[in-house]
Automatic annotation (TrEMBL):
Residues making up the signal peptide according to the UniProt record: none
Source organism: Acuticoccus sediminis
Name of this chain's protein: ATPase
InterPro entries, A to Z: NadR/Ttd14_AAA_dom, P-loop_NTPase
Domain of life where this protein originates: Bacteria
Residue ranges annotated for the NadR/Ttd14 AAA domain, each copy included: 4-166
Length: 182
């Protein structure tokens, strides 16, 4: 049975770097839906860009998160996700003043512990796929810090420490094997 673990939190808080370090140690990982959607949209018509059509983007992120969740069985005992369904549903609720989170979060479950990366100004950078500012990233983090507990998850906020230390914290919290570093 595959255990699905979410790494979420602030944009530019070190999630992707942490996932890369976990992958380098032999763990299966799933890239953030939002980044994949933005790359697809930039390569085509741009219709699902979050700054152009946030509702379509959120619906696409929800569908992708559900597909990701369903397709990882057999990839290993632990699979780490760069964001999950709660992130996408929380964003949809934010842009529509809706209540997608309550229905979707109970249908697709991850490990009960979710790891959040807090705002880290020194790491935050804009790029072609991340056009929002640090203030928006802080607001996003605040929404997620409320959304995950509201959806029944225990949140562990990762300290602003080295990637190696963050990997150790995550694996110790999950009582997971600490494979040797590459």
């Amino acid at each position: 049975m595959t255990c699905r673990v979410v790494i979420s939190g602030c944009s530019g808080g070190g999630k992707s770097t942490l996932l890369e370090a976990l992958a380098a140690r032999g763990y299966a990982t799933v890239e953030e839906p939002g980044r994949r959607i933005v790359r697809e949209a930039l390569a085509s018509d741009g219709g699902t860009l979050p700054w152009r059509d946030p509702v379509a983007f959120a619906h696409r992120a929800i569908a992708m998160a559900q597909d990701d969740h369903a397709r990882v069985d057999g990839l290993g005992p632990l699979v780490f996700f760069d964001r999950g369904l709660v992130d996408a549903a929380s964003f949809l609720d934010h842009v529509t003043d809706g209540d997608a989170l309550s229905g979707l979060a109970s249908a697709t479950r991850y490990h009960t512990t979710v790891f959040l990366t807090p705002p880290w100004p020194e790491l935050f950078q804009n790029d072609a796929e991340r056009r929002h500012g640090f203030g928006e990233a802080i607001s996003e983090y605040a929404r997620l810090a409320q959304a995950y507990p509201a959806a029944g998850y225990t949140v562990v906020t990762l300290p602003r420490v080295s990637v190696k230390e963050r990997v150790g914290i995550v694996l110790a919290e999950l009582d997971a094997p600490q494979f040797a570093e590459p």
